[in-house]
Design goal:
- The complex is a heterodimer of chains A (251) and B (788).
- Chain A has six helices and ten strands; from the N terminus they run E-E-E-H-E-E-H-E-H-H-H-E-H-E-E-E.
- Chain A is α/β, with parallel strands linked by helices and 251 residues long.
- Chain A has a single domain, classed as Rossmann fold.
- In chain A, strand 9 and strand 10 form a beta hairpin.
- In chain A, helix 3 crosses helix 4, helix 4 packs across helix 5 and helix 5 packs parallel to helix 6.
- With 788 residues, chain B is of the alpha+beta class.
- In chain B, helix 7 runs parallel beside helix 19 and helix 13 packs across helix 20.
- Chain B is elongated, with a radius of gyration of 34 Å.
- Classes of the chains: A alpha/beta (251), B alpha+beta (788).
- Chains A and B meet through helix 2, strand 6 and helix 3 of A and helix 1, helix 8 and helix 11 of B.
């Protein structure tokens, strides 16, 4: 059912395979937390491919969120290289990273992080207003099955609904990559599955390269590839020959 | 269509509307005082300038004994002189129907059928004097109003000893007498003193001034140097008993107005500084808190590609909205107060009109100052939002580090309960913020004191001046120096208990290169009615060989006891002599030099002469005395200070009430703004902690103690510090407002302190009551569920 692959990747200076969206080489990240030094990533080598749905699987504290932050241009590595398409994110400036996030990346967070003072529609509009070629907030919201609840404030929505607004917000700009950090972490299994279905639908319909972080091994079954992360390193990469659809997942 | 981010802004502003309003109110305070003072200043300056211009207010003024009219031609020939007008000016006693007290008039000649060449009168009602009429008089508007006199009414006047019946034909105002006070008086008293105008001929014949004049005013041509003209004019007038010409800037009425304008300038600076400072602090506190609450939202916005600049602009917009509300309201209130104050000025000064003027640059400066203050106040907080790395914003903030307070380190913790320790630790953890909060409350308290102190200070000033120092009931001024023996005839009048003579001459004082014009007073060494006081209000004996001078005059001349003062007398033979300064006397009104009358007589090389008399009058015989005095031809005028003071109080009361009311509002707005915002922030920062305590079984009042106890403690500490600030503020204003015309003493009665403290405490209690409601809504369930 699954096959272990080696991590061999081309050196950073070779031209990328045109199917490679992200090329990550030797990435480390060290934080200073008060007086303690935390080594969150200890040398990651990884390629992510166009249109693929990847699950980054790991226990809490394994460094998977740090990796996602670096992929999303929220953070920069201490060492190593991150190449997105033809752009080197490793040494990108603050404003280059902002532009990268603005035009290429969609984020979904564990706690949704909606702006409480804005309605569902407006939360999406916050993003579409600054994007280059967005869908309308209404389109994005009906993609996640929320076409009816446009004018509700976050406080008036259930957790699953809030997370779907967050997904609509993330996909409304037609991003090249969709990065999801524990998108079902705060949800019960039934709602979690609805959210995962929304993500899978986006991946299939729009062909958006999607990376989902989770510590829930059950979710891994829906991915093309599963990257196992332990203690800041990739311990294993598996490929699913048969992917399950979210409602078939066991939690 | 409104952008989503702007909608967020509006909704957040609405959610924090009470806080925003509290801050906006403080800005309203700053802007309104600024606009009020500046617009009043501009309006008065504009009004004065246009009044002076249209009515040809003179540039140089001079009085003399008597000069033939031909001298006017010589004056006209002085280089730099434009127009010259000679006049006959005198003081008369008036007999007003149904008014027993002495009334004196300052009578000025007016050409027939004319408003005059210079210092033209503004005819308020009636008509000008017809040619050939020697019994017509025009009264100053205020004087006529005080006695309800109008055109057609008749009054009697003693003109050079002869009783004459006069018909009022009109009422008017003059740019020369915007501030109308009797010589020697401090306050306007329109019942007992007034300026009035008569035809020149009857006046000249009554005073032997036919073909002559005793007063001259002139205007200068462009570019002329007034001092040069004054010097030459003095030379020309010296043989004719000139008492020294002076510039427009030394003209009494004009000076009062100028001083008033200076005070407005001080007000326009001091108070807005306080208000804007407090507003900046409050904005900082509130915006810092908002930004730390919205850490994650900021991170999300950045994650989706909003630039740092866009985030910075977003929060700056919020600040600017609050400022905008403050500025707009402040402009409205400022214009309202400015118009009110201008109206008060128009009434307390004799101005025919007031041109209320709000210059666009004042609006622009008010807005700019507010924006600069607000932006600089929130710069750090907004920068924090701008600089927040998005990945870090996703992580919860580190719990703040606490440590045992100094009280606990000293081992005193056993005296404090856990909640009390929480209060102390909280204050000590952020000493700077606690200090600023306390300072804000102190400033509110201090500002309140400024509003309250004026009445008490003026009471004290008048008490010292007129009960302790000048103790006479009446001062009679003779038409010219008279033998001291004339006192006997006064003393003989029934009802006069005591009469003391005094000698008074106008003089120019000089020490080193500094000069000052005032009167030199010769008084009796053991005088009962005129006492000089030291700083402790003890009586000072006037020495035989030397002078005592007003403390403020000694400062002006920078002269000290032991130094020799040069006195150049501006009357009679105009002798110049030097006398040692023996000491200084405390005086709040005017500035003078005092010596023994006999010494002054000797220095003037004259006999036992007096210029007038101070009288103590038995109240029962008051009216009789007044009547007798009116009949005495040698008496030029009678000044009764006490009734002037009462009149002054009547006019002042309304003004003082207006300012006290405004000050209370402003002080209250600072106190409320600081306390309410501090409490809201504390509630927001600590709601989790407090909700957790509620879960653990704390009562609402126990939780409230932790929250409100901190502010109560800061308020209690702030009040005494506020007293110090208020004291310093009053001292500064007194220093700035001090002029040779008057100095307001620093007298802060208990009621001033009590009222200031009361306003602060009441504002705090109102804030606490508003917070108490919020405490009822602490969400305990959310605490159990939500992540920190």
């Amino acid at each position: 059912m699954s096959e272990t692959r080696s991590n061999s990747t081309p050196s950073p200076h070779e031209p990328l395979n045109e199917n490679v969206v992200f090329h990550i080489h030797g990435v480390t990240k060290t934080y200073q937390m008060g007086e303690v030094q935390v080594k969150a990533l200890r040398g990651i080598d990884l390629d992510l491919y166009r249109g693929e749905l990847t699950v980054l699987l790991g226990a809490s504290g394994s460094g998977k969120s740090t990796l996602l932050n670096i992929l999303g241009g929220l953070d920069t590595p201490t060492d190593g290289h991150v190449i997105y398409a033809d752009q080197d994110l490793t040494h990108a400036s603050e404003s280059e990273l902002t532009e990268y996030r603005r035009y290429h990346v969609g984020f979904v967070f564990q706690f949704y992080n909606l702006i409480p003072s804005l309605t569902a529609r407006e939360n999406v509009a916050v993003v579409t207003e600054i994007a280059k070629n967005p869908m309308t907030p209404e389109e994005a919201l009906s993609l996640v099955g929320l076409g009816e609840r446009l004018d509700h404030f976050p406080a008036q929505l259930s957790g699953g609904e809030q997370q779907r607004v967050a997904i609509a917000r993330a996909i409304a700009k037609n991003p090249d990559v969709l990065l999801c950090d524990e998108p079902t972490g705060a949800l019960d299994s039934k709602t979690g599955i609805m959210v995962l279905e929304a993500l899978q639908q986006v991946n299939q319909k729009l062909g958006t390269t999607t990376a989902i972080i989770t510590h829930n091994a059950g979710i891994a079954q829906m991915a093309n590839r599963v990257i196992h992360i332990t203690d800041g390193k990739i311990s294993e990469i598996t490929t699913n020959d048969t992917r399950l659809s979210p409602h078939e997942l066991s939690w | 269509m409104m952008r989503a981010l702007d909608k967020k802004l509006w909704r957040e502003l609405w959610a924090m509307r009470m806080q925003a309003l509290a801050i906006a109110l403080v800005i309203v305070g700053g802007v309104s005082i600024f606009v009020m003072s500046m617009s009043t200043m501009d309006s008065l300056t504009e009004t004065r300038a246009s009044y002076y211009r249209e009515h040809h207010f003179a540039d140089v003024f001079a009085s003399l004994k008597r000069a033939p009219i031909s001298v006017a031609r010589r004056i006209q020939e002085i280089p730099g002189v434009n127009k010259v007008e000679t006049r006959v000016v005198t003081y008369i006693n008036l007999d007003i129907p149904d008014f027993n007290e002495p009334v004196s008039g300052h009578l000025i000649s007016l050409p027939d059928n004319s408003r005059g060449l210079l210092n033209q009168i503004f005819l308020n009602s009636g008509r000008l004097i017809e040619s050939g009429r020697d019994d017509e008089i025009i009264l100053s508007k205020e004087f006529a109003q005080a006695h309800k006199l109008q055109a057609g009414d008749k009054i009697k006047a003693t003109i050079n000893g002869r009783l004459k019946s006069l018909t009022v034909v009109g009422t008017g105002l003059s740019p020369e007498y915007i501030y109308q006070i009797a010589p020697g008086a401090m306050f306007p008293d329109f019942e007992r003193y007034g300026v009035m105008w008569m035809a020149r001929n009857p006046l000249a014949s009554a005073y032997d001034m036919e073909g002559a004049f005793n007063n001259v005013t002139l205007t200068l041509s462009k570019g002329a140097h007034s001092q040069d003209v004054i010097d030459q004019l003095d030379d020309i007038l010296k043989p004719y008993g000139g008492t020294g010409a002076y510039d427009r800037k030394d003209q009494l009425s004009n000076r009062f107005l100028s001083e008033e304008l200076e005070q407005q300038k001080t007000t326009a600076t001091v108070f807005p500084i306080i208000f804007f400072g407090v507003a900046a602090f409050l904005l900082n506190v509130v915006v810092s808190r908002l930004i730390s609450l919205e850490r994650e939202q900021i991170a999300v916005l950045k994650a989706f590609g909003y630039s740092n600049l866009a985030v910075g602009v977003h929060y700056s917009k919020l600040v600017l909205m609050i400022v905008l509300i403050g500025v707009l309201l402040g402009l409205a209130v400022g214009v309202w107060m400015g118009k009110g104050v201008s109206k008060i000025y128009m009434n307390s000064y004799s101005l025919p009109f007031i041109l209320y003027e709000l210059k666009p640059q004042i609006i622009v400066s008010a807005a700019l100052i507010s924006i600069v203050v607000a932006v600089s106040g929130t710069l750090f907080a907004v920068q924090k939002a701008v600089r927040l790395p998005p990945a870090q914003g996703m992580r919860p903030e580190q719990p703040t580090a606490f440590r045992p307070t100094i009280v606990e380190r000293l081992g005193l913790q056993k005296r404090f309960s856990q909640p009390s320790r929480m209060i102390l630790r909280h204050i000590e953890r952020r000493p700077f913020k606690s200090f600023l909060t306390m300072l804000g409350i102190s400033l509110a308290c201090g500002t309140m004191m400024v509003g309250g102190f004026q009445k008490g200070a003026i009471d004290h000033m008048i008490d010292v001046q007129y009960n302790l120092s000048q103790r006479e009931d009446l001062m009679a001024i003779f038409t010219e120096p008279t033998s001291n023996k004339s006192l006997y005839s006064l003393q003989g009048l029934q009802g006069i208990e005591l009469a003391e003579g005094f000698r008074m001459v106008n003089a120019r004082l000089q020490f080193e290169h500094r000069t000052y014009r005032t009167s030199v007073q010769g008084i009796e060494p053991d005088s009962q009615l005129m006492r000089l006081l030291d700083t402790d209000l003890n009586t000072i004996q006037v020495p035989k060989d030397g002078v005592i001078m007003t403390d403020y005059l000694a400062e002006l001349l920078q002269i000290q006891p032991g130094d020799l003062l040069t006195i150049e007398v501006l009357e009679g033979n105009r002798p110049t002599f030097q006398v040692p300064v023996i000491g200084t006397a405390k005086q709040y009104l005017g500035v003078n030099v005092y010596l023994q009358r006999s010494t002054l007589n000797r220095l003037l090389k004259e006999g036992d002469a007096i210029s007038g008399a101070l009288l103590k009058v038995d109240e029962l015989h008051q009216n009789q005395v007044y009547r007798k005095l009116k009949e005495l031809p040698r008496i030029a005028g009678v000044v009764e200070q006490k009734s002037s003071i009462e009149g002054f109080y009547e006019t002042m009361n309304e003004t003082i009430l207006f300012f006290t009311f405004i000050n209370t509002l402003l002080g209250g707005s600072i106190a409320f703004g600081v306390v309410y915002n501090s409490m809201r922030i504390a509630l927001s920062e600590r709601s989790r902690e407090l909700a957790s305590l509620r879960i653990l079984g704390f009562q609402r009042n126990e939780v409230a103690y932790i929250l409100l106890g901190e502010l109560a403690l800061l308020t209690l500490v702030a009040i005494p510090i506020g007293f110090l600030i208020g004291n310093a503020l009053c001292q500064y204003l007194i220093f700035e407002f001090a002029t040779d015309l008057y100095r307001i003493p620093l007298v802060l009665g208990t009621h001033v302190y009590a009222f200031a403290a009361l306003v602060v405490i009441v504002s705090s209690i109102i804030s606490a009551m508003m917070i108490w409601r919020n405490l009822a809504n602490l969400d305990m369930v959310a605490v159990l569920k939500a992540k920190e």
